[in-house]
Design brief:
The chain is built from seven helices and nine strands; from the N terminus they run βαβαβαββαββαβααβ. The protein has about 210 residues and is α/β, with parallel strands linked by helices. It has one domain: Spore Coat Polysaccharide Biosynthesis Protein SpsA, Chain A. Strands 1, 2, 3, 4, 5, 6, 7, 8 and 9 form a nine-stranded mixed β-sheet that branches. The longest helix is centred in the middle third of the chain and has 11 residues.
Length: about 210
């Protein structure tokens, strides 16, 4: 079986309004060698039917009883075969260059294990709200990351798979700042590399934890 270069993990729970557009933003990536792992975390709406209607050989769907986003991400990791891992929330969007630019950054900086881009914010209908922090920090980012989560969301980074062997999985006991916790654990061991382009569109809604 051909191994995918990148594994993308989308946890989804009752996101029928946004999940199709989110998945399309992955399938429209300029890089094509990836697997898209969607973890249906016990959705009660039409999410399951929507994702099942999308036909692409790279799309892999796994359904579980609801256990929360951290558990869903960890379940996605257990299914992942790629050398690189990316996470995407079910209501956020990626620019088509996102994976390509981040992969190039990691390949050009073998000492780094995490690549991140800039974020802009959109509303529930997809209209631009505001630009994100657009911070560019490279190398040892732990001191700055300890002060503020300048990565801004869980849809941002591309991570070398081997880094999870060191830092472990997402902490399923956390109900807030679980992304920040993971980024800090990664930053304690590995260098980061910035990709100074707004590749992530973070959707601000009533359910947005980072809004």
């Amino acid at each position: 079986m051909k191994t995918s270069l990148i594994s993308i993990i989308i946890p989804v729970y009752n996101d029928e309004k946004t999940i199709k557009q989110t998945i399309e933003s992955v399938l429209n990536q300029r890089i094509i060698n990836f697997e898209l792992i969607v973890i249906n975390d016990g959705s009660q709406d039409s999410t399951g039917e929507i994702i099942s209607s999308i036909k692409d050989d790279r799309l892999k769907i796994f359904s579980y009883p609801n256990a929360g986003v951290n558990s869903a991400r960890n379940r996605g990791l257990s299914h992942a075969s790629g050398d690189y891992i990316a996470f995407l929330d079910a209501d956020d969007l990626w620019h088509p260059d996102k994976l390509e630019f981040q992969l190039n950054a990691l390949q050009a900086n073998p000492q780094a294990a995490v690549a991140y881009s800039w974020t802009n914010y959109i509303d529930e209908s997809g209209q631009f709200l505001r630009r994100g922090n657009h911070i560019t920090l490279n190398g040892n980012v732990y001191p700055q990351l300890l002060l503020t989560d300048f990565l801004e969301n869980g849809s941002n980074v591309l991570i070398r798979r081997k880094a999870f062997d060191t830092v472990g999985q997402f902490d399923e006991s956390l109900t807030q700042a679980e992304d920040w916790n993971m980024w800090l654990r990664l930053a304690a061991h590995y260098s980061f590399v910035a990709v100074p382009y707004p590749h992530i569109l973070y959707r601000v809604s009533a359910n947005s934890a980072s809004s």
